[in-house]
Amino acid sequence: MTRGGLLIGWLGWFGALTLTLTPTRAQTPDPAWGTSARLQRLKDLLPRLDALYAEHAVSNHIPGHVWGLVVDGRLVHVRASGLAGVEPVRAVTPDTRFRIASMSKSLTAAAILRLRDEGRLSLEDPVSKHLPEFRKARPATTDSPPPTLRHLLRMSAGFPQDDPWGDRKLAETDAQLDALVARGLTPASPTGTRWEYSNLGYAVLGRVITRVAREPYQAYITRRILQPLGMTNSTYAWDKVPADRLALGYRWEDERWKAEPMLGDGSWGAMGGLITTLEDFARYAAFHLDAWPPREEADTGPLRRSTRREMHRPWEVISVLQDLQDAAGRPVARVAGYSAGLSWNQDQRGVLWVRHAGGLPGFGSEFRFLPDHGIALIAFANRTYAPMSAANHKAMELLVNEARIPARPAEGHPTLFRRAEELATLLTGDWRPEALHAALAPNVFLDHSLETWRRETRALLEQMGPIRDREPLVPENRLRGRFRLIGERQSLEVFLTLTPEATPRIQEIKLTLQARKTP
With 50 as the cut, is the pLDDT of residue 31 above it? Predict the structure, then answer.
């Protein structure tokens, strides 16, 4: 019997369910993912989000702040509030330039990865290959490997956490950084054995960019990343920003704001020196979101989509933490990792976000984007180490869990939808032998005998009662997904995984009886 004849036979036997098993319905995406539906939900939520950031600024003694929301590559909302300067008084506007501190690190990492993609360096290069001064930086133990560029990117080169010391070195010259390295460095840990946040590591990466690109890292990042993205209001030099558009930095001390000096543009700016606007940085956040989902269309950005996705995945485990709360105040655990200038996070509910905070004398900031949801949150403030991560997390909770902004549906391989059709037929068709070869891999009946499948499937169908409907297949990836058969009394969740063969077949099936959802 031909494959087409078998399929016609199955559907004819299937009778009343034929109309609910059409591929068109199975492949219909979640309508909630559509931009208009999400934007309407967001529109209703914006007043609460604005109030959230305003309350955060008051409770944390923040002179001025600006926050923005990016959806599907567009900056859909910006709100500026407070003071860019205290004396004389100047208001923050959406066009105010803020120093974003360590949020700059991902641009430094992007520049290194672009040079890697161009074949001008390897991430496995010892740092000393590009900076001979680094040869005197002895590792902690004799059996430790020499630090590589990858170690610096993922913060596992062995340097100690250095915020109090490193944050004040922003304006030092290249000659000063070279001399510091040439005198030798004292590591805190053997190379590659643990993650520890290092500003020095990213300052060294800036020197590598300068040496390899043969131009200052500021010029290379501006020419190769900022300008192609249209980030024309971004710079490393604060004295080149019009005075009426620059946010000045303050610390809260003795119940008042005290001005922090604006540090100059120097060799350590690669770890935290970029000055930008909310609109400019929204272009950068949208650029990262645009890497998802992987697809066939032309790759025209200043950094490949695959390279951006490489930045979004964890290279180094930071920790398992329970430092967050959901919208109801319940504790939420998360796993945190670090890749190249970005931190990867996934909580116990499966929500995934990529982020980086920034903190310097006078400034605090954070941006985070959710690749599965197509949204990004950005917040800048002009108070020393202002905790903008906390505000962004509360906003993310409202967006994802209260407004129920959905995650992007996974894309299933066409064969996955076809196998789901065949499996639904097989389950309700008494596992007829003539249908088995095309749909099922041989291991299925080695793992679970044909007679056992028949017996257990009959029992489940009897508990369900007559089948009334079928919900669409929901892919988990291109070769794995689940659907539900709706019975009169109960429902049956059907999970299937396909083989990696040229013509994939079903290698695993899980059947779970569930209480029927009431309309």
Answer: no
